[in-house]
Amino acid sequence: MSEGKHLLTDETGDADGTRLPGRMAHSVWNFFKLLGPGLVTGAADDDPGGIGTYSSVGAAYGTNLLWMAMWQLPMMTDIQEVCARIGIVKRQGLSEALQLRYRKSVVGTAVLILIVANIANIGADIQAMVAAVRLLVPVKFIYAAIIIAFVILILEILVPYKIYSKYLKYLTVTLFAYVIAGFLVKPDWATVIKDTFVPSITWNREYIFAMIAVFGTTISPYLFFWQTSQEVEDLSGQEKEAGPSEHMPPRKRIHVMRKDVWTGMLLSQVVMFFIIVTTSQTLNKHGITNVQSAQQAANALKPVAGHYAFILFVVGIITTGLLAIPVLAGAGAYALCEVFKWREGLGKRFTRAKAYYGIITLSIILGLVLIFSGINPIKALYYSAFLNGIVAVPLMFLILRLGDDKRVMGLRTNPTWVRLFGWAAVAAASAAIVITAILYIAPLLKK
Asked: What CA–CA distances, in Å, run from 6 to 11, 17, 27, 54, 189?
């Protein structure tokens, strides 16, 4: 007996119960395996377009907008939890669940705006990925764009959901490239810490516009729809694998979901934080304040931050595009199919959900066409981020009310702390939009 005990302590820790690094790594891996929709949703938030927005903000305003990373975290986490909770409790996507309380025309209008914004995002993301590839390999733009769009489309349509969801999950690891780049540039940590905790607001329309664009890039409507539908898909997939006796009860599933969502949203904001830190400490300090894209930021980094920071930034653009474009296209497809009651889901084969995969295909093709149409996708992205920030407000209002409705959610309505931060997000975004409107209209009234 004592020999068995001795062997056990040798494998897992010393005699006083101290765990060894191997056991810790095992625990971390087990935790990672529990993560799913929340982690992918948070990582997809940092798409190449988002990287471009954060880079332009860091270049233009230095660390003055860093505070948004921390202050947005509880707000975005709460709204994503409400969406995930709806998916778990109702086993319905967000569009379908919203129709339990609101008119189809209201939900349909929101979905239409969502898809238009998503196509602009897809076009900008493909363009950013192609430009990033061309920074590393000499290849014609048109060929690279078509190949990237085709590869993403084939993966999303033909790869089984179980494998595809793991591919998306493992891609999230590449986001740490931006964390490493942030440390490589050796920032002024005293200034960084101060600007993280103390909001610094400049009362002019460009700054407020940038705030709303960051908000719209971070708390994007497509994430609401993707999170909800992925919870339903994940739930269905797990229940097919497990026997009826092994089904996880709703309370435990919500507990696991909360860890997943918090981890994903924390990752999203940590990456945003380090992108702003990297570009503010390099580009802004060297007088490069007009950066309009992620690849432009990467190129500008090379002479001032070094080759390694440049490579990390470029690789991050490519891998986040591979993660985010399927989410953008998939979110719009989920939303539209739920409005018209069409079969949908990555868990279904193409022949069983033709409309769903057709919308995904059309979204990616239109995003590709946008690049060659003469419209500047990066400019379209920046304004679509602003539009997302405006659209997110009424959509959050509808979602929070749905999550509080006992007739819909039963005993699983939103906890008090979720209501608090959720409504705080609505109030803060609404105030920013009103202030922007005033700042734009006031000079016109003086004329």
From this structure: 9, 12, 22, 54, 47
